[in-house]
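Hi R.,

Here are the chain sequences for the assembly we discussed:
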Amino acid sequence: MSDELENKSGYQAQSSETVNEYSGSAVGDVDYVRPAEVSDQDLYHGHSFITKWVFCQDAKVIGVQYFLTAVFTGIVGLILSWLMRLQLGFPGLAGFMTAEHYYQFVTMHGMIMVVYFLTALFLGGFGNYLIPLMVGARDMVFPYVNMISFWMFFVAVAVLMASFFVPGGPTGSGWTLYPPQAILEGTPGSGAGILLMLISLSLFVIGFTMGGLNYLITVLQARTRGMTLMRMPLTVWGIFTATVLAMLAFPALLVSSIMMTLDKVLETSFFMPTIIKAGEVLGYGGGSPILFQHLFWFFGHPEVYIVALPAFGIVSDLISVHSRKNIFGYRMMVWAIVGIGALSFFVWAHHMYVSGMNPWFGFFFATTTLIIAVPTAMKVYNWILTLWRGNIRINTVMLWCLGFIVTFVNGGITGIFLGNVSVDVPLSDTYFVVAHFHMVMGIAPLMVIMGAVYHWFPLVAGRILDEGLGKWHFWITFLGAYSIYFPMHYLGFIGVPRRYFEMYDSPYMTSGVGLNEFISLAAFIVGAAQFILIYNIIKTLKTGKLAGKNPWQANSLEWQTSTVPPEHGNFGEKLPVVHRWPYDFSVPGAKDDFIPQTVPPSEVIDTEVEKT
Amino acid sequence: MSDPKIEGYQFKPGFRGMVDDTASDQTMFKGVHWGKAMMWIFLLSDTFVFSCFLISYMKGRGSTPVEWPNASEVFGLHVFGVDVPLLLIAIMTFVLITSSGTMALAVKYGYEKNRKMCGWLILATAIGGLTFVGMQAFEWSKLIHEGVRPWENPFGAAQFGSFFFMITGFHGTHVSIGVIFLFIYAYKTFAGHYDEEKRGWFTSMKGNYVEIEILGLYWHFVDLVWVFIFAFFYLW
Amino acid sequence: MHAGIVFFLVILGSVLFHIFTPWYWTDIASNWGGMDDTITLTFWVGGGVFVAVCLFMTYCIFKFSYKEGRKAEYKPEDKKLERILTWATTIGVVALLAPGLIIWNQYVNVPKNALEVDVMAWQWGWQYRLPGEDGKLGTTKVININDNNPFGINTDDPYGQDDVIIQSDVLNLKTNRPVKILLRSVDVLHNWYVPQFRAKMDAVPGVVTFYWFEPNKVGEYEVLCAEYCGVGHYAMRGTVIVQDEQNYNQWLSEQETFSEFVAKLDKLEIEEKKIVKKINLN
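And here is the predicted structure of the full complex:
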């Protein structure tokens, strides 16, 4: 231990004077950048296996830890979805599948994918890895808290997984956990299962708060010299705004979890009215089930954007880099992200149009919901306008981005159906809803994750993923996923309700049988195709092409590190100084078709670069 | 405190200054310590937690079909043969607000590097907090003795007990955590960890008197929340 | 290039699928045709945007694929274009929102002459109650529910005595008379949903929720539970039979009222006691 302490102070912190000498001498010089406000960060360097790879304080390692843990839960979620599709497409084929199991799988699949997979992956995974690199910081501002954040998440996942092994199994109350049903007999896992779920969610919220504070303060207070907010890559903007949403939305989840735990354990009646079950009057009375729904969706709707905004940000960067063209309308993109984030707190009850709340709320929430469509549409226009007159590399990364645009526009437009209150009435709680949210917050963000993996893998591992395998992976996933969810909307039109264990033999159900079988087959193939990526990663780690520095000729700071992969402290001796936005691609008069953010104006004096 | 001086940066007053700070590089809140900014944002998040609790309480109180108990009777204290409504709560509130005052003074002496005064004032704050928690425990036991439980109570709507124990319990947990940290910080102050910039036990970050101000922010927040809880539970 | 072709085929396939799909909504049997119309309108506008955006994207793939030495355009912003697109989108959104809100306004305002139907849900089944000759439903309380009072009717409420109670999951309705569905639940959330009527609303324990529709087509329809309510959710079904006035009245006259039900129970009880007495005597 003493040896460790010694090492803690052993880090050679640079004094601010050395940084000042680096660039720009006086005010008025074209290359002038203000001197550093804060002295260089004091970092703890791990030196044993445990402090380097397990309880590590380096945000990059924490990011990878988050990523791998999230992917592990994601694979569990994937397997659960296979089992569900097996039951829906080919009922009776899996002999062990009872209605109890089916509902447990539905619930766990939903909760895992939304919270433990997508949220953790985008914010914990990409957020940790990319924020310090992209804003030019040595690390997150509170590395120790950041480490605790991951381990809290890890424990939350462990508790969640433990619920598979308790008597009664995991909760089967649907991922929305609506009371009274969630904690009453008659729902599978209403004993230990739901309790572990609530505990796990509370742990997740606490852990996430620790991480979230790091992301926010790193972006707000630890940017490098010259890095203004309006010079940040949109990836950082997306993750930043999503984190703000999370910090304000997760409290509602925490509170509702606490209240439901008390309802379950102490028989309080926060959400429980007088209930008669099997002729017995239960010991509850006077509570309001709709209160839970308000709390849940006050969290639940921003949650959708917690997943979507990082995806918006990342895809903007990927499209820009691989079209060799600046992102079109950067400022509009930033304001759209911020605006969508702010509006997302005023739309939650559009999940509750037919919940029995005061129906007059419908007018307000339908209006706010459709207002969100405007900034969202602007983002879509700007993505395709970025492609326009670009010089588009049709590589694997770009393919995932194009796949994202198709699936996102598709899912976004079905969102207009569901947000428009009276159109929602016939469609809510049918497969139309299932198809909509899988398309828009399942497949579309997943496309971005995949694109981001292919894009940043060379940075993380130093080798470029195999393009051939990548293209197979993309086409099977994209075409497969599209043929799962596009036709699924039509099941909803027929009137097939969601969360039905069996599509029994009534007239409008039987007509959908063939379609159901097709969807299931496609789901098996798409799920299996994901293992191509795992194979690709293993193969690339062994024999892949070496990436070298900046293989995509990108401008943002993460590619300007002193070594690839970047070591602890990110930028070696001196922190980079930023002179421009990260989108100076194909600038007229420039030698190359890209000008990294660190290039000072004096080096590209003849170019017609716009001031940013 | 006067505005911080930052080399090469021109501070401007008012809205213009806010826009300039936002548009500048490196930091958004000029001269603000990372930890302090973190605490502010954490408190914003915590505000949402307590708001959710209190809004749920209002909704629960509004929608329960059974009569809500009369606060001044339930929380009344029988002293020297007289029923005094809200006596205990008045003392609790007074103690907590006073501890906010001692905390503020501790921060002041901390920045003046007055180790002794700072340490004693932190200790006084901690003892104030402890007294508050103790009195809360007394009130809880009194109510429990009278038959109030989270799931029922003899005075009226069952939700009264549920919300009361949950929200004051959650707030009491905040106070208790604060007290623990106050004791630790008092020790660290007396031991001179902030003067000699000793590295933290866990975080390995250098000690600095700003940490006392950060803890102070948390402490004032906890007091402020109490004012709201006080108003919602005892005065409504 | 190949990518462009595949994306084009995906868009074409989506459009063709929509045109030729054998899976589309069931024939409507209520007054909510406006909902279908709004869906159709949204399909035209939204589908148009989808096809336009994706075709533009495909065009870009064909036209601007990577060529060594070519330089992309450098144009960070185009204020005018952005403004035009914002306004066009806003107009489109308003055009979709307006009919939606108009129909919602009809949905939340129940016609005065609507027939009230009390739909009571439990895990897992339905039962119904219609007002008697006085045209009013008696008040109820969950706590009153027992074998002698399956609907929990307040026995001191005179309106409740003549209520028609239907202890089966088959409900009859007559054509062209608005129906106000009053939903109750004794345990968890449920939702009384008939796809052909388009309308739905959750039944929430502790409160009474409502919605209305006007059946306008004779036939037998299936009722589904559309809010997850536990492990029997998928099996929670019922039937609605919509008939013309004459058949409906016939059916109605065959149903028993609450007071008849109670009288029958009392009689049974007395007979039971007699039997017990006899047995004891023997």
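The mean pLDDT of chain B is 89. The CA atoms of residues 9 and 156 of chain B lie 62 Å apart.

Let me know if anything looks off.

Best,
T.
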